[in-house]
Amino acid sequence: FKAKAYESSFLKDEASVELMGFHDDKAAPDYCSKERWMEYIMSRAEDPSSRIAVAIINKRHLPTIKEIRAACSEKGFMPPKPVVVTRAGDDWSADEATEWDIDASSVTKDWVEAAQIALAEVKRIMQ
Asked: What 3 state SS string does the chain have?
């Protein structure tokens, strides 16, 4: 995946969305550690009007979502809804969805669909 693939997302043009992306490839010049993006999420979690509503992640980031949920729960904050994008060959089973407490409808192989799921969640929250 490209380092800044999120920049081509239609979400960047949505007035109701502040799109932020983090590159997790340690070899990349714009690398950002897991701790940095967790800090970004947690720093905004206290304010319902600026909290991170959705985190679009790769499957390998699922353990970090558990950490974010635990940190939010500890402070009484609402965690972001995870939307998981898998590679074309990955299979997502109902058991995995249950194990990670992820709604199976929030798992996709398509980045555009992931953005659509994210936008629907933002609109739901804003109602």
From this structure: CCCCHHHHCHHHHCCCCCCCCCECCCCCCCECCHHHHHHHHHHHHCCCCCCCCEEEEEHHHHHHHHHHHHHHHHHCCCCCEEEEECCCCCCCCHHHHHHHCCCHHHEECCHHHHHHHHHHHHHHHHC
Strand partners, 82: 55
124 pLDDT more than 80: yes
pTM of the model: 0.85
Q: Residue 105 and residue 57: Cα distance in Å, rounded?
A: 14
- How far is residue 105's CA from residue 16's CA, in Å, rounded to a whole number? 22
Residue 80 has pLDDT above 80, yes or no: yes
> For 18-42, how does the pLDDT look when each residue is reduced to its tens digit (9 = 90+)?
878 787 888 888 788 889 989 999 9
Rounded CA-CA distance 56/78 in Å is 16
Q: Which one, of 99, 90, 88, lies nearest residue 63 by Cα? A: 99
